[in-house]
Amino acid sequence: MKKIEVVAAILKHGNEILCAQRAESKLEYISKKFEFPGGKIEAGESKKEALKRELEEELNINPNINDLYLTVVHQYPDFELTMHSFLCDVDTKEITLNEHISSQWLKRTELLGLDWAAADVPIVDKLMQNG
Ligand SMILES: Nc1nc2c([nH]c(=O)n2[C@H]2C[C@H](O)[C@@H](COP(=O)(O)OP(=O)(O)OP(=O)(O)O)O2)c(=O)[nH]1
């Protein structure tokens, strides 16, 4: 089974968190789902270097990347995903959506209202518990 390793950012502005909606995809289980921005780690990159690159590519932002929050291993029908999520503080809500089709800044308690990619659910649960 194919394995993918991804980094993702929990972008916090005050008490709000950025939730970003993926574009339509032929993989229905991730198509238009909400996620934390990020992407695959490329050869030779550290996790934080990969996340910095992805955040610039996807949102035109360059935030401080803080501690690892949670690593999730999730089995999708076509691949096994390992996703490392990092807390990041941003000082502005101004972002440019270069790849996502929509975004919302939500309080922790509001996160469950979105249709998240399945791999994100443990991260969302932890964020809600620690609210
Ligand atoms: N970035 C991110 N990816 C997630 C999350 N949840 C989740 O299941 N994924 C999955 C969807 C994709 O299969 C994979 C991320 O791959 P991607 O295609 O977005 O990464 P990338 O930007 O490096 O894309 P590419 O170069 O392959 O086009 O991880 C999440 O919260 N954030």
UniProtKB/TrEMBL annotation:
Pfam families assigned to the protein according to its UniProt record, in alphabetical order: NUDIX_4
According to the UniProt entry, what is the EC number of this protein? 3.6.1.55
Q: Name one GO molecular function term.
A: 8-oxo-GDP phosphatase activity
Q: Which GO terms describe its biological process?
A: DNA repair; DNA replication
The reaction(s) annotated as catalysed by this protein in its Swiss-Prot or TrEMBL entry are: 8-oxo-dGTP + H2O = 8-oxo-dGMP + diphosphate + H(+); 8-oxo-GTP + H2O = 8-oxo-GMP + diphosphate + H(+)
Q: Which domain of life is it from?
A: Bacteria
Keywords (A to Z) from UniProt = DNA damage, DNA repair, DNA replication, Hydrolase, Magnesium, Metal-binding, Mutator protein
Query: Where's the Nudix hydrolase domain?
Result: 2-129
Q: What class of enzyme is it?
A: hydrolase
Q: Mind telling me which InterPro entries this protein's record contains? A: MutT-like, MutY_C, Nudix_hydrolase, NUDIX_hydrolase-like_dom_sf, NUDIX_hydrolase_CS, NUDIX_hydrolase_dom
List, separated by semicolons, the cofactors it needs: Mg(2+)
Q: Which PANTHER family match?
A: 8-OXO-DGTP DIPHOSPHATASE, NUDIX HYDROLASE FAMILY PROTEIN
| Family (UniProt) | Belongs to the Nudix hydrolase family.
Protein name as it appears in the record: 8-oxo-dGTP diphosphatase
What is the species of this protein? Arenibacter nanhaiticus
